[in-house]
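ok so for the tutorial part 2 we go from a plain amino acid sequence to predicted structure tokens. step 1 is just haveing the sequence, like this:
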Amino acid sequence: MRRPVIIGLTGSIGMGKSTVAAMFEEAGVPVFDADAAVRAMQGPDGELLPAIEAAFPGSTGPKGVNREALGKLVFGDKDKLAELEAIVHPAVGRKRATFLEENAQAPLVLFDIPLLFEGGGNKAVDVVVVVSAPAEVQRERVLARPGMTIEKFEHILGLQTPDADKRAGADYVIDTGATLEETKSQVHALIKQLHSEAGAAD
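step 2 — the prediction. this is what the tokens look like for a chain of 202 residues:
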């Protein structure tokens, strides 16, 4: 039985991954957004709140997870971060499995996963697509975000697989340093190519 071709989309902070994911979705490719799934499960009445509160007392409230409070508890502590990931990652995996079942008839599906390489998720997809832009463009975009500092930006970069390594591990690279229209044309060309290859494999 044929199943969808699974595209893993990733990219470092400020590279335009969310914009590119939206372009895939607009073109009719079902998209699973790992970050959105986590936000929902950690939001008001989210299914992960009891487990997170039990492991990290005082980190949740009526509005869901208090990201600042939780951040202080796990920041810089690998054991506590691993404990949090042990709660979150299996739950995301279940959501992803449900998404795949619901879209089993689609020729292509896309997993939008920020830490695709860092978590080894690149081994669980058929095609790895990396969004990338020149370092100066990335820096400009990120530092324009509210509350962002050079120190925060550099800390985040330090946690992520370097852009050059992501590009080296990609099957396809989408250049987001160009105009939105140019980026969109790259996305549409890739979708057409993957549809063609999926059809040829049947």
